[in-house]
Q: What sequence folds into this?
């Protein structure tokens, strides 16, 4: 260990040393303060990193991976990290002694907390008001998933999956706001969507041709519900037209309205609107884009070549 005056000039943080600021009062001219330029945008911390994995965040310029690891440790011990993020954090702590010790400290704290709260839960009823209920809204939990067609945001209420959103062309704020328009308040909790993530993983791997998931269509119109329920009955690897869906719900001339309703499908893939095509056999529009629609059908053995 280094002792004496030298170590007072160094402060260890995450195992990285830097020179401390001397306790000297600096006098600055007023005009110097007034003419200083604001920091560049890239020096400012982002407001949110929705959908961006820990590995990508840690690889950014001027970012200390240990800082990213520390921020993620509470979510790690609570089981709220996505599998890729958990794998990155485990790999990092395996090579960083400082972060490894810190993660073990978090795990010890979590064990003590679980023991304490487990005892309290058995003796004290939890009658705290729920924010969503107080606002007359339904409560949901959401998380993220990486897939072959890009990142997804997935949300579920106590009644079932209520949102599957492609994040290829927009950030997570868009589906969160869409859920709010359906009177659903969503908060992030990765562990709550684990069943949906597991089944979607199997689907993308070609190991699942039917989802065994409850869905929550809260906030949708009766017509849209009818369209989505009819669409749910289209088998894996098959396609049908918007007109035939209209026939199935008893609205023979409503094929355009059916298309509009499917465009608002909040749970694509699980409710397979990618299996609905135009009456002339053309692919048609899709909420995630035609390339994603083509890819999903390809997983199911239905081939639609890209237009030349």
A:
């Amino acid at each position: 260990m280094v002792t004496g005056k030298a170590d007072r000039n160094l402060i260890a943080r995450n195992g990285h040393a830097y020179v401390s600021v001397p306790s000297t009062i600096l006098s600055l001219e007023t005009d110097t303060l007034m003419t200083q330029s604001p920091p560049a945008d890239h020096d400012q911390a982002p407001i949110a990193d929705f959908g961006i994995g820990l590995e990508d965040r840690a690889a950014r310029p001027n970012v200390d991976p240990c800082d990213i690891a520390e921020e993620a440790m509470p979510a790690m011990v609570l089981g709220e990290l996505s599998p890729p993020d958990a794998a990155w954090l485990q790999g990092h702590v395996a090579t960083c002694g400082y972060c490894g010790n810190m993660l073990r400290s978090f795990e010890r704290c979590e064990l003590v907390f679980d023991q304490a709260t487990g005892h309290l839960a058995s003796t004290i009823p939890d009658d705290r008001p729920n924010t969503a209920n107080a606002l007359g809204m339904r409560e949901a939990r959401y998380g993220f998933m990486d897939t072959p067609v890009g990142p997804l945001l997935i949300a579920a209420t106590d009644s079932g999956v209520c949102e599957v959103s492609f994040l290829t062309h927009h950030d997570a704020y868009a589906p969160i706001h869409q859920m709010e328009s359906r009177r659903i308040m969503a908060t992030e909790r990765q562990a709550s969507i684990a069943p949906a993530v597991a089944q979607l993983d199997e689907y993308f791997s070609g190991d699942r041709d039917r989802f065994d998931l409850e869905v929550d269509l809260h906030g949708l119109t009766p017509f849209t519900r009818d369209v989505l329920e009819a669409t749910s009955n289209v088998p894996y690897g098959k396609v049908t037209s918007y007109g035939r869906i209209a026939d199935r719900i008893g609205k023979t001339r409503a094929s355009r309205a059916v298309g509009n309703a499917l465009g608002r499908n909040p749970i694509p893939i699980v409710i397979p609107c990618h299996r609905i095509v135009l009456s002339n056999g053309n692919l048609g529009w899709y909420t995630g884009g035609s390339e994603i629609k083509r890819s999903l059908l390809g997983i199911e053995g239905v081939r639609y070549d890209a237009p030349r």
Observations:
- The chain is about 40% helix and 10% strand.
- The domain at 222-299 is CATH 1.10.10.10 (Arc Repressor Mutant, subunit A).
